[in-house]
Amino acid sequence: MSQPPRPYVLSLAGFDPSGGAGLLADCKTFEQRGVYGFGVCTALTVQSDVQFERVQWMPLADIQAQARPLLERFGVGWAKIGLVESLAELPELLRWLRAQSPAIGVVWDPVLKASAGYDFHAGPAPELVAEVCTALALITPNQPEMRRLWPAAATAEEAAAVVSAYCSVLLKGGHAEGSEATDVLYQNGREVARFTTPRLPHGEKHGSGCVLSAAIVAGLARGESLVEACRSGKAYTARVLASNETLLGYHFQNEHEYANP
């Protein structure tokens, strides 16, 4: 018996051979979250879950060439952008995506540093952050990334509130202290929702931010509100974090397996 059509989503991200982060992690998440995921490679990395050696970047023209036939053939409603070489080229990429699919929604997971230990980007200029975020539905930075994106703010929370005037911000709480990990959603300069799960003794996972942002994109593509998508995405990610004691998490096939972490 055939299944009903799934929504189409697109990940523009780096290729991580370990499968913990980037395109492979995104597509695993998309599949388990009930959407059909396309992948456009923005970078080829040489890494494992604990070591980063080097990266080969894809030029913007090649990124567009990969995405063009997919956007021409399929109705892609949502896209996620992860690792890219040039933050200065992000506005051009966003304008191009919207020219191909005017109604597309875009979530940016600002990968500024690899969890395996490699700095990709210094903090961009505030004017660039504002220009990029105005074209987005959501950004999903962790606390160090948020501080790097908006260093004029005294705290990551203050930075998230400021940037949420341009687009919604989900400030991830994995780098905070305490027995619980809380992600906070900001919109229009204020906090609107919190999403909390227990902090696990072996919960650190390579690529957890990729999984969360991909899970949120899948929820949005399935018709969930932003708050609902953040909540269900957090729940799915919590199950991946709890799946084993290594740095590479396992994904889950059935919706009920992550509905109540």
TrEMBL record:
InterPro entries: HMP/HMP-P_kinase_dom (IPR004399), PM/HMP-P_kinase-1 (IPR013749), Ribokinase-like (IPR029056). It comes from the Bacteria. SUPFAM superfamilies: Ribokinase-like (SSF53613). Residues 16-244 form the Pyridoxamine kinase/Phosphomethylpyrimidine kinase domain. Keywords: Kinase, Transferase. It is an enzyme of class 2 (transferase). Pathway: Cofactor biosynthesis; thiamine diphosphate biosynthesis. One of its GO terms (molecular function) is kinase activity. Its EC number is 2.7.1.49. PANTHER family: HYDROXYMETHYLPYRIMIDINE_PHOSPHOMETHYLPYRIMIDINE KINASE THI20-RELATED, PHOSPHOMETHYLPYRIMIDINE KINASE. This is hydroxymethylpyrimidine kinase. It comes from Hymenobacter defluvii.
